[in-house]
Write a structure and sequence with these properties.
CATH superfamily of the largest domain: NAD(P)-binding Rossmann-like Domain
Strand content: 5-15%
Largest sheet: 4 strands, parallel
Shape: globular
CATH architecture of the largest domain: 3-Layer(aba) Sandwich
Number of strands: 6
CATH topology of the largest domain: Rossmann fold
Distance between the termini: 35 Å
CATH class of the largest domain: Alpha Beta
Bound molecules: NADP nicotinamide-adenine-dinucleotide phosphate
Oligomer: single chain
Strand order of the largest sheet: 3-2-1-4
Order of helices and strands: EHEHEHEEHHEHHHH
Number of helices: 9
Structural class: alpha/beta
Number of domains: 2
Helix content: 40-55%
Length: about 200
Protein backbone atom coordinates (compact mmCIF):
# COMPACT_ATOMS: atom_id res chain seq x y z
CA UNK A 1 0.00 0.00 0.00
CA UNK A 2 1.13 3.59 -0.61
CA UNK A 3 1.12 5.54 2.65
CA UNK A 4 1.59 9.20 3.54
CA UNK A 5 2.81 9.73 7.09
CA UNK A 6 3.36 12.89 9.16
CA UNK A 7 5.67 12.96 12.19
CA UNK A 8 7.98 10.43 10.55
CA UNK A 9 11.11 11.95 12.08
CA UNK A 10 9.70 11.52 15.60
CA UNK A 11 9.91 8.71 18.12
CA UNK A 12 6.80 6.84 16.99
CA UNK A 13 7.09 7.89 13.35
CA UNK A 14 10.56 6.40 12.79
CA UNK A 15 9.49 3.04 14.24
CA UNK A 16 6.24 3.08 12.24
CA UNK A 17 8.01 3.81 8.95
CA UNK A 18 10.41 0.94 9.68
CA UNK A 19 7.58 -1.52 10.32
CA UNK A 20 5.55 -0.35 7.29
CA UNK A 21 8.54 -0.77 5.00
CA UNK A 22 9.33 -4.22 6.47
CA UNK A 23 5.75 -5.24 5.62
CA UNK A 24 6.22 -4.14 1.99
CA UNK A 25 4.46 -0.76 2.05
CA UNK A 26 5.77 2.34 0.29
CA UNK A 27 5.93 5.39 2.55
CA UNK A 28 6.11 9.10 1.80
CA UNK A 29 6.80 11.10 4.96
CA UNK A 30 6.41 14.80 5.69
CA UNK A 31 9.67 16.50 6.69
CA UNK A 32 9.99 20.17 7.58
CA UNK A 33 13.79 20.39 7.73
CA UNK A 34 16.93 18.77 6.36
CA UNK A 35 17.36 16.95 9.67
CA UNK A 36 13.81 15.55 9.49
CA UNK A 37 14.33 14.62 5.83
CA UNK A 38 17.48 12.65 6.70
CA UNK A 39 15.61 10.90 9.55
CA UNK A 40 12.66 9.73 7.43
CA UNK A 41 14.94 8.60 4.60
CA UNK A 42 17.11 6.66 7.09
CA UNK A 43 13.94 4.99 8.39
CA UNK A 44 12.99 3.88 4.86
CA UNK A 45 10.57 6.52 3.54
CA UNK A 46 10.91 9.11 0.82
CA UNK A 47 10.60 12.68 2.08
CA UNK A 48 7.90 15.20 1.20
CA UNK A 49 9.25 18.60 2.15
CA UNK A 50 6.83 20.75 4.17
CA UNK A 51 5.18 21.41 7.52
CA UNK A 52 1.73 21.07 9.01
CA UNK A 53 0.63 24.47 7.74
CA UNK A 54 1.55 23.70 4.10
CA UNK A 55 -1.94 22.60 3.16
CA UNK A 56 -1.20 22.20 -0.56
CA UNK A 57 1.67 19.85 0.22
CA UNK A 58 -0.51 17.86 2.63
CA UNK A 59 -3.43 17.67 0.19
CA UNK A 60 -1.29 16.52 -2.70
CA UNK A 61 0.61 13.92 -0.70
CA UNK A 62 -2.60 12.58 0.85
CA UNK A 63 -4.25 12.38 -2.58
CA UNK A 64 -1.33 10.24 -3.86
CA UNK A 65 -1.69 7.82 -0.94
CA UNK A 66 -4.08 4.96 -0.15
CA UNK A 67 -3.75 5.59 3.61
CA UNK A 68 -2.59 8.47 5.80
CA UNK A 69 -0.99 8.12 9.23
CA UNK A 70 -0.97 11.45 11.09
CA UNK A 71 1.53 11.54 13.96
CA UNK A 72 3.01 15.06 13.80
CA UNK A 73 2.40 17.21 16.79
CA UNK A 74 4.39 20.09 18.24
CA UNK A 75 5.38 19.15 21.79
CA UNK A 76 5.92 21.06 25.04
CA UNK A 77 8.28 20.34 27.90
CA UNK A 78 9.48 17.03 29.24
CA UNK A 79 8.89 16.03 32.86
CA UNK A 80 11.84 15.29 35.12
CA UNK A 81 14.59 17.00 33.19
CA UNK A 82 14.87 19.96 35.55
CA UNK A 83 14.50 18.26 38.91
CA UNK A 84 16.71 15.23 38.23
CA UNK A 85 13.95 13.07 39.72
CA UNK A 86 11.19 11.17 37.92
CA UNK A 87 7.92 12.92 38.71
CA UNK A 88 4.41 11.66 39.27
CA UNK A 89 1.38 13.77 40.08
CA UNK A 90 -0.18 13.82 43.58
CA UNK A 91 -0.03 10.26 45.01
CA UNK A 92 0.70 8.76 41.57
CA UNK A 93 -2.17 6.32 42.00
CA UNK A 94 -3.62 7.13 38.57
CA UNK A 95 -3.21 4.44 35.94
CA UNK A 96 -1.53 4.83 32.55
CA UNK A 97 -2.53 2.76 29.52
CA UNK A 98 0.90 2.00 28.08
CA UNK A 99 2.00 0.47 24.80
CA UNK A 100 5.47 -0.50 23.63
CA UNK A 101 6.76 1.42 20.62
CA UNK A 102 7.22 -1.73 18.51
CA UNK A 103 3.70 -2.99 19.31
CA UNK A 104 2.27 0.40 18.32
CA UNK A 105 4.15 0.41 15.01
CA UNK A 106 2.73 -3.06 14.27
CA UNK A 107 -0.76 -1.85 15.21
CA UNK A 108 -0.64 1.02 12.70
CA UNK A 109 0.36 -1.50 10.05
CA UNK A 110 -2.30 -4.02 11.10
CA UNK A 111 -5.02 -1.34 10.99
CA UNK A 112 -4.41 -0.41 7.33
CA UNK A 113 -7.00 -2.84 5.89
CA UNK A 114 -9.67 -1.88 8.45
CA UNK A 115 -12.85 -0.23 7.13
CA UNK A 116 -12.78 3.59 6.98
CA UNK A 117 -13.98 5.10 10.24
CA UNK A 118 -12.75 2.22 12.41
CA UNK A 119 -11.33 3.26 15.76
CA UNK A 120 -8.79 1.24 17.76
CA UNK A 121 -7.00 2.01 21.00
CA UNK A 122 -3.21 2.05 20.80
CA UNK A 123 -2.71 0.36 24.16
CA UNK A 124 -0.93 -2.79 25.23
CA UNK A 125 -3.39 -3.92 27.92
CA UNK A 126 -1.13 -3.32 30.94
CA UNK A 127 -2.14 -0.29 33.02
CA UNK A 128 0.33 0.37 35.86
CA UNK A 129 0.08 3.41 38.12
CA UNK A 130 2.08 6.54 37.37
CA UNK A 131 4.02 5.99 40.60
CA UNK A 132 4.92 2.42 39.59
CA UNK A 133 6.20 3.73 36.24
CA UNK A 134 8.23 6.49 37.94
CA UNK A 135 9.75 3.99 40.40
CA UNK A 136 10.68 1.57 37.62
CA UNK A 137 12.35 4.37 35.64
CA UNK A 138 14.18 5.58 38.75
CA UNK A 139 15.40 2.01 39.33
CA UNK A 140 16.87 2.01 35.83
CA UNK A 141 18.84 5.14 36.71
CA UNK A 142 20.69 3.21 39.43
CA UNK A 143 21.37 4.25 43.03
CA UNK A 144 20.96 7.93 42.15
CA UNK A 145 17.46 7.31 40.72
CA UNK A 146 14.78 9.25 42.56
CA UNK A 147 11.08 9.98 42.22
CA UNK A 148 9.24 13.13 43.22
CA UNK A 149 5.57 13.93 43.75
CA UNK A 150 4.34 17.14 42.12
CA UNK A 151 0.99 18.77 42.69
CA UNK A 152 -1.07 19.13 39.53
CA UNK A 153 -0.49 22.91 39.72
CA UNK A 154 3.31 22.40 39.88
CA UNK A 155 3.18 19.91 37.02
CA UNK A 156 1.13 22.31 34.89
CA UNK A 157 3.70 25.03 35.54
CA UNK A 158 6.64 22.82 34.54
CA UNK A 159 5.24 20.83 31.63
CA UNK A 160 1.98 22.52 30.66
CA UNK A 161 -0.27 21.75 28.82
CA UNK A 162 0.33 18.00 28.88
CA UNK A 163 0.37 17.68 32.70
CA UNK A 164 -3.38 17.10 32.71
CA UNK A 165 -2.93 14.14 30.37
CA UNK A 166 -0.32 12.64 32.75
CA UNK A 167 -2.83 13.06 35.61
CA UNK A 168 -5.56 11.02 33.89
CA UNK A 169 -6.57 7.69 35.38
CA UNK A 170 -6.95 5.35 32.40
CA UNK A 171 -7.34 1.60 32.26
CA UNK A 172 -7.89 0.49 28.69
CA UNK A 173 -7.92 -2.78 26.80
CA UNK A 174 -6.68 -3.60 23.29
CA UNK A 175 -9.32 -6.34 22.96
CA UNK A 176 -11.06 -4.78 19.93
CA UNK A 177 -7.85 -4.46 17.93
CA UNK A 178 -6.85 -8.00 18.87
CA UNK A 179 -10.24 -9.37 17.84
CA UNK A 180 -10.69 -7.44 14.60
CA UNK A 181 -7.12 -7.03 13.33
CA UNK A 182 -5.45 -10.21 14.57
CA UNK A 183 -2.82 -8.00 16.22
CA UNK A 184 -1.32 -8.97 19.57
CA UNK A 185 0.92 -6.80 21.74
CA UNK A 186 4.02 -8.81 22.64
CA UNK A 187 5.56 -6.52 25.28
CA UNK A 188 3.44 -7.45 28.30
CA UNK A 189 5.69 -6.35 31.17
CA UNK A 190 6.50 -2.65 30.79
CA UNK A 191 7.63 -2.14 34.40
CA UNK A 192 10.35 -4.78 34.07
CA UNK A 193 11.44 -3.26 30.76
CA UNK A 194 11.56 0.26 32.26
CA UNK A 195 13.49 -0.93 35.31
CA UNK A 196 16.07 -2.64 33.10
CA UNK A 197 16.69 0.24 30.68
N1 LIG B 1 5.39 9.23 22.67
C1 LIG B 1 4.35 9.04 23.47
O1 LIG B 1 4.49 8.49 24.59
C2 LIG B 1 2.96 9.43 23.04
C3 LIG B 1 1.87 9.13 23.89
C4 LIG B 1 0.61 9.50 23.50
C5 LIG B 1 0.41 10.15 22.29
N2 LIG B 1 1.47 10.43 21.49
C6 LIG B 1 1.21 11.14 20.22
O2 LIG B 1 1.83 10.44 19.13
C7 LIG B 1 2.28 11.38 18.15
C8 LIG B 1 3.77 11.16 17.88
O3 LIG B 1 4.48 11.22 19.11
P1 LIG B 1 6.07 11.11 19.19
O4 LIG B 1 6.41 10.72 20.59
O5 LIG B 1 6.60 10.33 18.05
O6 LIG B 1 6.44 12.67 19.02
P2 LIG B 1 7.87 13.34 18.67
O7 LIG B 1 9.00 12.37 18.81
O8 LIG B 1 7.93 14.62 19.45
O9 LIG B 1 7.74 13.68 17.13
C9 LIG B 1 6.91 14.74 16.72
C10 LIG B 1 6.92 14.72 15.21
O10 LIG B 1 6.04 15.76 14.76
C11 LIG B 1 6.78 16.54 13.82
N3 LIG B 1 6.27 17.90 13.83
C12 LIG B 1 6.03 18.69 14.91
N4 LIG B 1 5.57 19.89 14.51
C13 LIG B 1 5.52 19.83 13.14
C14 LIG B 1 5.14 20.76 12.15
N5 LIG B 1 4.70 21.98 12.49
N6 LIG B 1 5.22 20.38 10.85
C15 LIG B 1 5.65 19.13 10.52
N7 LIG B 1 6.05 18.22 11.41
C16 LIG B 1 5.97 18.57 12.71
C17 LIG B 1 8.23 16.47 14.29
O11 LIG B 1 9.08 16.86 13.25
P3 LIG B 1 10.57 17.43 13.52
O12 LIG B 1 11.48 16.24 13.60
O13 LIG B 1 10.83 18.29 12.35
O14 LIG B 1 10.52 18.19 14.83
C18 LIG B 1 8.30 14.98 14.62
O15 LIG B 1 8.43 14.21 13.44
C19 LIG B 1 1.98 12.77 18.71
O16 LIG B 1 0.77 13.20 18.15
C20 LIG B 1 1.83 12.52 20.20
O17 LIG B 1 0.97 13.45 20.83
C21 LIG B 1 2.74 10.08 21.84
Amino acid sequence: MKIFLTGGSGYIGRATIGELVRQGHVVEALARSERAEAAVVAAGASAVRGGLTDLDVLNQAAARAEAVIHLAQATGGEPGRESGAIPYIADGGNHWALIHLDDLARLYTAALPAPAGSVYLGVGGVNPTAKEVAEACAHAAGPAGKTVSLSLAEARERISPIADAFALDQQLTPAKAQRELGWTPVHADPLTEFAAE
